[in-house]
Amino acid sequence: AAGKTTILYKLKLGEVVTTIPTIGFNVETVEYKNLSFTVWDVGGQDKIRPLWRHYYQGTNGLIYVVDSNDRDRIEDAREELNKMLNEDEMRDAVLLVFANKQDLPQAMTAAEVTEKLGLHNLRHRQWFIQSACATTGDGLYEGLDWLSRTLSSKR
């Protein structure tokens, strides 16, 4: 419940939709600044994580959504992110991290999330972290701005 599906539909529809835990995936096209993103929103539950690698091929950018309020699972988030980034098919993918749920008073800052995910250790990969609140939309377009600029410059 980091907010992946909420973010996808906020970007796609501009509104907050009621979500249920994603078993499998949602796929949508999101148009932004003359770019068309095909976004695969893949369920995050432990038992379906082994399926993630089936979505890696042809990936240009990874949007990794973290629940900034969940200090108990941030280490798990770090491990899963590293596993993903170490896959061959993800070699050239740029990384956008949304530090989501910034509206909650105990939420970790983007700087804290950066440290706990070990983002500064990422060599040879373009990455960016953006504070976000999926329900209000705060930070989402700033993140997409970075992603669209970065992917456009890689063409």
TrEMBL record:
GO biological process, one term: protein transport
Any one GO MF annotation of this record: metal ion binding
Pfam family, one: Arf
Compartment(s) of residence: Golgi apparatus
Residues reported to bind Mg(2+): 5, 22
UniProt main location, coarse: Golgi
GO CC aspect terms: Golgi apparatus
Secretion signal span: none
Keyword field: ER-Golgi transport, Golgi apparatus, GTP-binding, Lipoprotein, Magnesium, Metal-binding, Myristate, Nucleotide-binding, Protein transport, Transport
Binding annotation for GTP: 44, 100-103
PANTHER family tied to this protein: ADP RIBOSYLATION FACTOR-RELATED
Similarity annotation: Belongs to the small GTPase superfamily. Arf family.
Functional description taken from the UniProt entry: GTP-binding protein involved in protein trafficking; modulates vesicle budding and uncoating within the Golgi apparatus.
Name used for this protein in its record: ADP-ribosylation factor
Protein species of origin: Cladocopium goreaui
